[in-house]
Design a protein that fits this description.
The chain is mainly α. It has 26 helices and four strands.
Length: 425
């Protein structure tokens, strides 16, 4: 029997040698396909609800965004800590030029709209004096508003909501969070699929040499598609801590890269998500924007009244108390509406002062293994069974194809004789 098997192997050597290569390719393709299916396409393609596919991460955008937030807030950074790093006086200094220009525009607009006759008859010198008086206290008002926002930051800014809404609105960005966090791990999954597949293929080759059951090739294909994914995931996350086995120290690939992952993740978060621009928009247009509006309104209206000084009763008398109040409200509304564009001039200073990337990186490096693993592991856990099942099904189909190819190839006389000997035996 051994001699017959060896004769068969020699006669069909290329078929046998193709088994490890084919098995390796199956392992590689199924693993890479599983990764692609986790993230793409970002929108559903096909006929909902069952005939089609959407990447697991984009399909569960809300849950995935929540997981990212649970890692970020409040374990690594809080709303108060972000704003505590901003110096109100420095912010006022950075804003001085744009705010003075904005005040000039608003005074001209509001006066021209409500009292065009009075405004046109006032000499330019007097108008300039009024504008300069209004501008004089603007930096102080800005600094005071910043102080008040810092004092009540928990009531006017929700960092977790901002991060969640940003990620849900941009599913490709959410994909990037996971893909860049685990970039080396995803490459490893594909390559390991090939290596492990080749090993399984060698076992398949040896088994096929001595026993040629029709079920064998499809079964091995299924096992390759199933096991290569499981083994790769195991090696990525386990063991969490360095574990010494003889002269070797083993540790899960993701945990071994904690410092590098911390730097990449922090840079992405600071550059794309927790940015001064996003924070500002969240404060001014988020769910608590009415509180911010009221805070700014109180300060600006008070500043207008103080600047009017002794002339306030006469101003109110000249334009009417109701119109005077309307003018103040209109000025505040337009000021708040233009603030996002105006305040972007402090982005450079704010990013440097907040230093989100450094803060996150240093703290991520110190995260305990279970919390650190939670940054990437959920992307695999969601519908993991489905991805593995797809890999197993693909491997099974390749095994069936292998069987059909083997049976279709003409059997050599030596193989026929060997089969007869095995049958008689």
């Amino acid at each position: 029997m051994l001699e017959a098997a060896w004769t068969d192997f020699q006669a069909n050597i290329w078929l046998y040698l193709s088994m490890p290569i084919t098995s390796g390719l199956v392992g590689y393709v199924t693993n890479v396909l599983a990764i692609k299916m986790m993230f793409y396409p970002t929108e559903f393609v096909g006929r909902p609800p069952f005939l089609g596919w959407q990447g697991v991460v984009p399909r569960k955008a809300g849950k995935m965004a929540g997981i990212a937030c649970d890692t970020l807030v409040p374990n690594l950074v809080t709303e108060r800590e972000i704003f505590e790093r901003l110096d109100p006086d420095r912010v006022a200094e950075e804003l001085e030029g744009p705010v003075l220009e904005l005040v000039d525009q608003l005074i001209d607009e509001v006066m021209s709209e409500f009292e065009p006759t009075i405004w046109e008859t006032i000499p330019l010198r007097i108008r300039d004096m009024m504008v300069r008086r209004a501008q004089q206290d603007s930096p102080e008002v800005v600094a005071e508003i910043m102080d008040q926002i810092k004092d009540s930051i928990d009531q006017v800014f929700d960092l977790k909501r901002m991060v969640t809404s940003t990620l849900i609105a941009d599913k490709s960005l959410m994909n990037r969070v996971f893909l860049e966090t685990g970039k080396d791990e995803f490459v490893f999954i594909g390559r390991s699929g090939f290596y492990f597949g080749c090993v399984f293929g060698l076992c398949q080759m040896i088994g096929w040499t001595f026993y040629k059951g029709d079920f064998q090739l499809p079964l091995f294909g299924l096992m390759v598609g199933y096991l290569t994914n499981l083994v790769a995931l195991r090696m990525i996350f386990r063991p969490q801590l360095p574990h010494k086995i003889g002269p070797f120290t083993i540790q899960g690939l993701f945990h071994k890269r904690q410092k590098e992952v911390a730097q990449d993740y922090s840079r992405l978060i600071a550059d794309e998500i927790v940015t001064p621009r996003n924070i500002l928009e969240a404060v001014l247009t988020g769910v608590h924007s009415d509180r911010v509006f009221s805070l700014i309104a109180r300060n600006v209206q008070r500043a207008i009244d103080e600047q009017a000084g002794l002339a306030r009763p006469f101003v109110a008398l000249a334009v009417g108390s109701r119109k005077y109040i309307q003018m103040k409200q209109t000025a505040v509304e337009r000021l708040v509406k233009r603030l996002p564009e105006t305040l972007h001039v402090v982005d450079g200073y704010a990013k440097e002062a907040m230093d989100i990337a450094s803060v996150l990186s240093s703290r991520l490096e110190q995260l305990p293994p279970p919390q650190f693993e939670a940054m990437l592991r959920p992307a695999f856990k969601e519908d993991e069974w489905m991805l593995i099942a797809v890999g197993a099904a693909l491997g099974f189909c390749v095994g069936v194809t292998q069987l059909l190819v083997f049976k279709a190839i003409a059997v050599t006389p030596a193989l026929t004789g060997a089969a007869s000997i095995i049958g008689v035996g």
